[in-house]
Amino acid sequence: MVDTVLVPGPIVLSSSVQKALDIPSLAHTSPEFVSIFSRVLQNTRKVFKADPKKGQPYVLAGSGTFGWDLAAANLIYPNERALVLSTGFFSDSFAECLELYGANVDKMNAPVGGVVDLTAIESQLQKSKYRLITITHVDTSTAVLLDVKRIAEIVHRISPETFVVVDGVCSIGCEEFEFDKWGIDYALTASQKALGAPPGLSVSMISQRALEFAQSPQTPTKSFFGSLKRWTPVMQNYEAGKGAYFATPAVQLVNSLDVALDEILQDTIEKRWEQHKKTSDWFRSKLTNELDLKLVSRLQDSAHGLTAVYVDEPPKVLSYLKQNGVVIAGGIHNEIGSKYIRVGHMGVSAIDPRLDHIPRAYELIKQALH
């Protein structure tokens, strides 16, 4: 019996996405693959709600973490200042990545399970000039959801020259996100989360102004494989239906992402957001009202793709669910890691009630606790 994986990524794949992995190898510049990749890039724009012509989407071999490197290597000079809003482990890791590439990082830390105060962000932007600000839309370590729209509005008003960079690894596909309307400059995600594809692809979108900065001869690119100067013409050619080469794309993974994006867009991205919200609201209500458990995040700041909740003896809960065929995750926040569990509810597990994945996880947690 195969376990039902309800960690916050990789997630359960739909049968169509699973089958798409079985495509025979294609030459990466063949007409067949160029057609697939062109559609993937165009549909990536649609899922991010980005402009159909301006800026550029990227689908590269890697993970969500590679998106941090892309931002750090292409969107900031060494010794320039970056402001990082931290709501957990992954926000802190983004800060580490920026520092590794030579940025001077100021970090604003939220209390555990809380958000960074908007007034404090405004004040900090008035005090210092920043090349970029990073917003972790959902920190997967705490399930805290930040209000990207309001934060972006503050940045545009106080420091319009600052690039707005969003880590959307645990949000793109399950949280409301408007790249173009909100004025985002760079947003990154990963194939194995709410996009509903297998692990192995870094998926991101850059605005026109950030793209021009990254491509400028004056901008020092601090990576070879992660150079947007190298990747941009390749992506532009593929999107326009022409083969190109810098490094070999992951053909089978791109094909599975093609099917996954098509499933999202047939459903409509707005409906996906609503379905994830409905599932997460139900699940959290059962945990807090019927089992009297406490969420790590405040209810109004909770993500819709995963839930982090305090339980007594997390290892016993994890073990009980595993024994009954359901895999969930433990805590990883450095202050509270041993006190809570994390349950992912993204993709088909959240939107297809026939699967019964989330109700079953709830019943098993209930049994484990009692």
Can you describe what's shown?
The protein is an alpha/beta fold and about 375 residues long. The protein has two domains: about 5-10 and about 270-370, Aspartate Aminotransferase, domain 1, CATH 3.90.1150.10; about 15-265, Aspartate Aminotransferase, domain 2. It is built from 13 helices and 14 strands. Strands 2-10-9-8-5-3-4 form a seven-stranded mixed β-sheet, sandwiched between helices. Strands 11-14-13 form a three-stranded antiparallel β-sheet. α4 (about 90-100) links the parallel β3 and β4. The radius of gyration is 20 Å and the shape is globular. The model has no long low-confidence stretch (mean pLDDT about 95). It is an enzyme of class 2 (transferase). One of its GO terms (cellular component) is peroxisome. Pfam families: Aminotran_5 (PF00266). Belongs to the class-V pyridoxal-phosphate-dependent aminotransferase family.
**Main sheet summary:** 7 strands, mixed
- The name of the CATH architecture of the largest domain is 3-Layer(aba) Sandwich
Shape: globular
Strands, total number: 14
InterPro entries: Aminotrans_V_dom, Aminotrans_V_PyrdxlP_BS, PyrdxlP-dep_Trfase, PyrdxlP-dep_Trfase_major, PyrdxlP-dep_Trfase_small, SP_NH2Trfase/AEP_transaminase
Modified residues (N6-(pyridoxal phosphate)lysine): 193
GO cellular component, one term: peroxisome
EC number: 2.6.1.44
Q: Which descriptors would you attach to this protein?
A:
single chain; 370 residues; alpha/beta; Aspartate Aminotransferase, domain 1; Aspartate Aminotransferase, domain 2; 2 domains; seven-stranded mixed beta sheet; 42% helix; globular
